[in-house]
Amino acid sequence: VLRWVRKHRPDVVITIERDLLDWFVAEEINVPGDLGIATLHFTEDKAPLSGLAMNTELTARSTIDLIAGQIYRNEYGLSPQPKTVILPPVWMEGDTLRRASTGPAAGWKP
């Protein structure tokens, strides 16, 4: 990963692991100045990463509601029409991304 980052110099790396932040800092890569890091699965132990928290507690509650409804309706076995619970994630600001600029990106031409 470090070799790839040095070669390709991306603006942001998206990960699910906090370890990347530690590797980049140990290699003296300025986060977020030179490289931003975002996670697709934020949990408290991944702070100070910026990224998406999947809101697992609300998902668990919604799943229990779904199951309780099935029990109430005396539904059992595999459903001929499976149900899915989808809840939007919550953005956690963190410290690993630069603030968006209000003007056009450097080098951008209309």
How do the helices and strands line up, and which of them pair or pack?
Blueprint: H1 2-8, E1 12-15, H2 19-26, E2 36-39, E3 50-53, H3 56-72, E4 90-92
Parallel strand pairs: 1-2, 2-3
Antiparallel strand pairs: 3-4
Total strand count, please?
4
What is the helix/strand order? HEHEEHE
Widest sheet, order of strands: 1-2-3-4
User: Which stretches are poorly predicted, pLDDT < 50 over at least 5 residues?
Assistant: none
Q: Rg from C-alpha positions?
A: 20 Å
Distance between the termini: 34 Å
Output the structural class.
Answer: alpha/beta
Offer a concise description of the structure.
The chain is an alpha/beta fold. 29% of the residues lie in helices and 14% in strands.
Task: Kindly describe this structure.
- This protein is of the alpha/beta class and 110 residues long.
- It has helices spanning 2-8, 19-26, 56-72, and strands at 12-15, 36-39, 50-53, 90-92.
- The chain is 29% helix and 14% strand.
- The chain has a four-stranded mixed beta sheet, with no helix packed on it.
